[in-house]
């Protein structure tokens, strides 16, 4: 009996098309990039110029709320602004916990960047683990479209392609954590001036954010452009 594979949408005939569409949906395009970057830029610039942590937090939060209001007025998706607001909220929580522990204002400012470092470290470990155990995370993007979350795993070609794509998503997270963590530790430990560490982390969070993600996506696009893997079949991919 022939194995049943749920049909993908009519416009998506290959795994590559599915992954492109899902990544575009998840990342939000240029506007999503701007909405993610603006609060961090304003936090860093405001803190370094006004030397007031609360003002920097309020300015970044106000900017995110303004972006949210614009989205609501235009009746467009608020997903990416909400993501920014969640990031600010978690950063504010870490700042508050640092303050309760008796940290200086500079140390509290450094605490704002700690969640991002922890997130990238954890996400890199999670995605790398999915590759190592043979269930790459990108494969579940394919499964979300076909209607069967695990059917893709029966096709070794799809597994191989999704593993390569997942590793490309791992690399930016590893690089961010590897570059930012030593700076955070040095600033928090007094090896470098804390304000200099805040400035560096602010610049790196932007510079290693979307630009690095775009580089990874460009590599993914190149890899996707070389292959044409049918969603429901086992035809050989173009190597």
Describe the structure in your own words.
This protein is mainly alpha-helical and 239 residues long. It has one domain (15-226). The protein has 10 helices and no strands. The protein has helices at 15-27, 29-50, 53-74, 79-100, 105-111, 114-132, 137-146, 156-189, 194-207, 210-226. α2 (29-50) packs parallel to α4, α2 packs antiparallel against α9 and α4 packs antiparallel against α5. The longest helix is centred in the last third of the chain and has 34 residues, at 156-189. Mean pLDDT is 82; it is low at 1-10 and 233-239.
Quick check: average pLDDT?
Answer: 82
Q: What proportion strand?
A: under 5%
Any low-confidence stretches, pLDDT <50, length ≥5?
1-10, 233-239
The description of the largest β-sheet is: none
Q: How many helices in DSSP terms?
A: 10
Count of DSSP E strands? 0
SS-based class: mainly alpha
The domain tally reads: 1
Q: What are the secondary-structure elements, in order, as H or E?
A: HHHHHHHHHH
Q: What share of the residues lie within helices? A: over 70%
Write down the overall geometry.
Answer: globular
CA-atom Rg in angstroms? 21 Å
In whole angstroms, the N-to-C terminal distance is 31 Å
